[in-house]
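My hope is that you will study the protein record below before we discuss the fold together.
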Amino acid sequence: EVQLVESGGGLVQPGGSLRLSCAASGFTFDDDYAIGWFRQAPGKEREGISCISVSDGKTYVADSVKDRFTISSDHSKNTVFLEMNKLKPEDTAVYYCAAESGLLATPAALGVMGVLFHSWGQGTQVTVSS
C-alpha cells in the first residue's frame, strides 16, 4: 500500500521560504512512479504545482511558480521536497503530495486537479501572512 506523509508547512511572512517534505512508502524510488505537489486554497479548485519522476529525476514545475518553487528528491529517504521561496499571501493553501505509477513528470500529469493520481497524503497547511 502506498502511503504519503507531508510535513514542513507553517506560518511564514511574505518573502519567506519553506521546504515541504513528502515521505513515501509502499514503493521505492527505483520504481516507475511520479510524485506531484498540489495545493488547494479555500474556495478554489485544487491546483497542480510540480511533479517529479522519481526513477530518473525528471521534473516539471508549473509556470505560475517556476521562478520561486523547486522540486527535488532524496532516494535514500524515499522523500520528495518542495522548496518554496519568495512566498506570497496567495500561496496560502493546504499543500498535498500524490503518487501514481506509470506517470511521467509532464504538465498533463498535473492536469484536471490531479485526477490521474490515486494515492494522496493528508496535506500540510501553508499560511503566508504578516
The chain has a mean pLDDT of 95. The radius of gyration is 13 Å. DSSP finds no helices and eleven strands in the chain.
